[in-house]
C-alpha cells in the first residue's frame, strides 16, 4: 500500500494492514529462508512534523521455516513493534560516515511510503536466525541422515557425534 505524505493530516494517519504474505516475500526476490504465510496484519500510525515522518505501530505474521537441526517444517508467529523515523532526502545525500545521531534515521526520496517495504524489513528483523522445532531437538544423524528425534538410527557409536576437533582431547602440551 502506498501512503502519500500529503495524505497525512496534522492529526496523523492510522492505517490498518492485511497484506498477502507471498506478495510481500516476492519483494525480497528469493532472498528469504522462510515463507511468509498470509495474512500479514498490522496497525501503523503515521505522524508528520516539518516534513519528517514518524511511524509507530505493530505488525503480526506467521512464518514457515525448516528447523535448523532436523529440517521439519515449523510455523512460528512473529510480532513486531514498529518505531521508525524518516527524513526527506536520499541516502546518497548523507556523508559517507553516519554519525551516531543518524543511526535510527531513515530517508525517503519521494512523496510517498510503500508499506510493503516496511513490512518486509520489520518481519526480517524479527525472524529467528536458527529456528528450532523444539529446544531439545536432536537433529539428524551425521552418517545416515535419520531423524534422531524419532529414535536411534542404528549407526555404530564409533565416531558418532565426533567433530573434527575431537582429536584435540588427546593433545598434551610439553
What does this structure look like?
- The chain is mainly β and 174 residues long.
- The protein contains two helices and seven strands; from the N terminus they run E-E-H-E-E-E-E-E-H.
- It has helices at 21-26, 115-126; strands at residues 2-4, 13-19, 35-49, 52-66, 73-88, 105-108, 112-114.
- The strands form two sheets. A five-stranded mixed sheet has the order 2-3-4-5-6.
- A hairpin with a 2-residue loop joins strand 3 and strand 4.
- The longest helix is centred in the C-terminal third of the chain and has 12 residues, at 115-126.
- The radius of gyration is 23 Å and the shape is elongated.
- The N and C termini lie far apart (68 Å).
Characteristics:
single chain, mainly beta, 174 residues, elongated, two-stranded antiparallel ribbon
Report mean pLDDT, rounded to a whole number.
85
Range of helix content: 10-25%
**Overall number of strands:** 7
Oligomer: single chain
Strand content: 35-45%
Tally of helical segments: 2
Question: Structural class given helices, strands, pairing?
Answer: mainly beta
Termini separation = 68 Å
Using the alpha-carbon principal axes, give the shape.
elongated
Please tell me how large the radius of gyration is. 23 Å
Which spans have pLDDT < 50 for at least 5 consecutive residues? none
Largest sheet: 5 strands, mixed
Q: Strands of the largest sheet, in order across it? A: 2-3-4-5-6
SSE string, helices as H and strands as E: EEHEEEEEH
Amino acid at each position: 500500500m502506498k501512503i502519500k505524505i500529503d495524505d497525512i493530516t496534522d492529526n496523523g494517519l492510522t492505517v490498518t494492514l492485511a497484506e498477502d504474505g507471498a506478495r510481500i516475500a516476492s519483494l525480497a526476490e528469493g532472498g528469504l529462508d522462510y515463507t511468509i504465510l498470509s495474512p500479514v496484519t498490522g496497525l501503523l500510525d503515521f505522524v508528520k512534523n516539518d516534513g519528517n515522518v514518524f511511524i509507530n505501530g505493530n505488525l503480526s505474521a506467521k512464518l514457515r521455516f525448516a528447523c535448523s537441526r532436523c529440517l521439519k517444517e515449523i510455523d512460528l508467529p512473529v510480532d513486531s513493534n514498529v518505531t521508525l523515523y524518516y527524513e526527506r532526502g536520499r541516502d546518497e545525500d548523507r556523508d559517507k560516515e553516519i554519525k551516531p545521531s543518524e543511526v535510527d534515521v531513515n530517508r525517503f526520496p519521494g512523496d510517498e511510503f510503500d508499506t510493503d517495504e516496511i513490512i518486509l524489513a520489520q518481519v526480517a528483523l524479527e525472524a529467528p536466525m536458527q529456528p528450532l522445532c523444539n529446544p531439545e531437538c536432536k537433529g539428524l544423524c551425521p552418517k545416515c541422515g535419520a531423524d534422531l528425534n524419532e529414535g536411534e538410527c542404528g549407526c555404530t557409536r564409533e565416531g558418532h557425534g565426533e567433530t573434527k576437533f575431537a582429536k584435540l582431547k588427546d593433545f598434551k602440551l610439553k
